Amino acid sequence: MKTTYFKTEKAFDNYLNDLQQDEAIMIIRGSVSCAGGETRGARVYDNKRVMVEVVILDEAEYDNASNFDKGE
After folding, report:
1. Which residues are registered as beta bridge partners of 40?
2. Of 56, 58, 69, 29, nearest in space to 45 by CA
3. 70, β-bridge pairs
4. Residue in 52, 40, 51 with CA at minimum distance from that of residue 5
5. What whole-number distance in Å separates Cα of residue 35 and Cα of residue 50?
6. pLDDT per position as a tens digit, 15-72
7. Distance CA 2, CA 10 (A)
8. Contact of 29 with 9, CB cutoff 8 Å
9. Which of 6, 21, 57, 64 has its CA 20 to 30 A from that of 44?
């Protein structure tokens, strides 16, 4: 499962809007768990309802993430 981190809401929203163009993807926005506790984010599911990605909107988590996991 992939985890992608964002520090700005604009980039976070743009990323989810791009994902939503695929009809086989289901996105559920809400609270997600991460190393720092609960934060805003989204869970992304494929057409078989298997979670394939967690998208996290948190500046501290973004700063601690590897460059590979950063979405902006």
Report:
1. 31, 57
2. 29
3. 5
4. 40
5. 22
6. 999 998 988 899 999 999 887 788 899 999 999 999 999 999 999 999 998 898 988 8
7. 20
8. no
9. 64
Q: pTM (2 decimals)?
A: 0.90
Under 8 Å between Cβ of 72 and 56:
no
- Look up tokens 């993430």; give the residue: 65
HEC assignment per residue over 41-62: EEEEECCCCCEEEEEEECHHHH
Distance separating the N- and C-terminal Cα atoms of the chain: 19
What are the residues facing 49 on neighbouring strands?
A: none
d(CA 1, CA 28): 16
